Amino acid sequence: MSRLVRASGALLLTGALVVPFAPAAGASAPMDTPGDAAFTLTVLHGNDPESALLHASGEPGFGGAARYTTLLHQLRDSENAGTGAGADEAEDRGVVTVNSGDLYLPGPEFAASQEEGAPFYDAVAASHAGYDAVAMGNHEFDFGPDLYAEFIGELPEDTTVVAANVDVSGEPELAAHEASGRIAPSTVVQVQDEQVGVVGALYPQLASISSPRDVVVNEVVGPVQAEVDRLTEDGVDKIILISHLQNITYEERVAQELSGVDAVVSGGGHEVMADEDEALVPGDEVTVHPGTGDPLSYPLLTEDAQGTEVPVVTAGADYKYVGRLVINFDAEGDLVSVSDRSGPVVVDDSVEPHPEVDAQVTKPVTDHVAELSETEVAQSEVALDGTRDPGVRTQETNLGNLMADSLLDTGVRNAEEYGVPEPQIGIQNGGGIRNSSVIPAGPVTALDTYSIAAFANQVAVVPEIPRTQVKELLEHGVSAAPAADGRFMQVAGVNFAYDPDNAAQEVDGDGEVLTPGERVRSAVLHDGTVIVEDGEVVDGPGITIATIDFSASGGDMYPFRGADFTVVGSTYQGALERHLTETLDGVVTAADYPEGGSGRIVVGEQATEPPGDGGGSPTDPPESPEPTDGPTDGPTDGATDPDEHKPGRPDDEDGDKGSLPVTGGALTGLVLVAAIAVAAGGSAIYLSRRRRSATDTGEGDA
């Protein structure tokens, strides 16, 4: 059995995990086979670019697809040439380039690709990057399988989409790509005289966070091991797993159950890995391992099922870093060391933008974003709070109320046209509010609405839900409290009180209640109808709910349990924009949406009595439950919260209790880059010129 070590570093073993200390400069670590490196492979990797095509959020000098592409090409050339190679590396060397998924994300930059006749700009960027393989991500399915199939069709034919645990046979367009070899469990890349196998894996609970329709995602370990064994039998002795499992500790646990995998490239978690002396993008911090409490240095080392050490790596998100993993193999194909040169490389303004990506991607997307940024849809008298924690994932906020009101408003407005009862309650999951920042008082733009309501979700009406099930839905919305969680609900049309010290509801993947919750103590509709009193449901007729199709179809494991719902002709971004422009007549008042919320959700025994405007004024402000972090479930069961542990970008901050990001500041970079402003023509043009319909839509919380 070979023993992998990090060159110039020491190791600390903690149970089944192997967590490296920050390497001591100039120190030398012993190896079982010193000096026996016969081949050096550099894995250049990215993950979660998520349509951040122009630059990193709030940081115009960092990231961007054009700069990322230039740096990737430069690193590929220098690694092939052996520039700066260490003494532990071999003369025979090569490079493989991979991305672990979430190549696009619904939002203002991806909206440019939805204009009639436009290409997929994210696919154009990926084409110039020249990936050997990419993994499937959850956001690839946010618009449904058909649009994803179209996207794959615009990738280069020699870029294979790898996914060993995914069955696409139920979706004809994706199945056609599988038949042609563009989708496969794995691919083999010829690197000099060596063959490198690249196997893919996707988050098994995909259907709870996106819209895969008839795509089936199986558990991870069995299918991946079968593919690794097949490659090994074919003589491939260098194998990389690129996986999108939402959390690097999930990938870590998968690695511990596999054998024959030499390295794992993780996606979906947005973790930042780096050693103490490595540069980071401003605002980023090295992620803390939730199990050990130690910073995630690069790489994270763990032992596989046979006791062999395996490096697990990731590279942040949003085109901010190119990951560089340099690994050395002996003549038998065993991994013997990780070069100390390994680590994330920052994409900053010292890198010249790739001219073709600049012309073919940056310019048209910049123009589109400029148009959105120039379209004012409302003036707000108050700052609107869309921060995550504390915020929309832990408590009522005024922006959460605004979003829930928008769903209820559209449901009522369109009920007759779509033949559904008028809804009485609006429910918006906190994970679907994505600006993760405070929008300052003042103008609210069309670009803001895309930033807030970033997914392809449609407004849906679920008729006449029994009151017992309504209580289950309310219980589900607070079941993770006090931890920050995407399922935490923002509400309209109802006020309720809950006790986070009481038993939390537990549900399975189908929304079946395994443990009834005892947290919701009181609930009253805004017309004064009491539906829960002293923790008990008050008998009465069913209640119609407006929500998003993601939640109505069981996303975030909301217990709708297959209830019939009707999509009522609007995206949730469109609902927000229309609520602002028409219902509120372009003014968000402090009376309707006070900072801190209006008492719709309170911690306690008694819901706030709604006044005539449906708000409420609690005697004491709602408590802000403190979040708790903990290790995820094991790989067989899947990660429990695909949205946790994603620091490093304002859209995905988790647990940062410092100063709050402000959307006005975060969007400034977009506006600065969008220097060529197009005359604003009203928000309707953005809906009327969509190149594709999105009837099968959803969101991924990650």
From TrEMBL:
Region (Disordered): 591-664
Keyword DNA repair among record annotations: no
UniProt key word Nucleotide-binding: yes
Record key words, sorted: Hydrolase, Membrane, Nucleotide-binding, Signal, Transmembrane, Transmembrane helix
Gene3D superfamilies in the record: 3.60.21.10, 5'-Nucleotidase, C-terminal domain
Domain (5'-Nucleotidase C-terminal) ranges: 377-559
Composition-biased stretches (Low complexity): 627-639
Record GO terms (molecular function): 5'-nucleotidase activity
Residue stretches spanning the membrane: 666-687
Pfam families: 5_nucleotid_C
Top class in the EC scheme: hydrolase
InterPro entries: 5'-Nucleotdase_C, 5'-Nucleotdase_C_sf, 5'-Nucleotdase_CS, 5_nucleotidase/apyrase, Metallo-depent_PP-like
Top-level taxon in the UniProt lineage: Bacteria
The EC number(s) this enzyme carries: 3.1.3.5
Signal peptide positions (record): 1-24
Family: Belongs to the 5'-nucleotidase family.
Name under which the protein is recorded: 5'-nucleotidase
Protein species of origin: Nocardiopsis terrae
Lineage of source species: Bacteria, Bacillati, Actinomycetota, Actinomycetes, Streptosporangiales
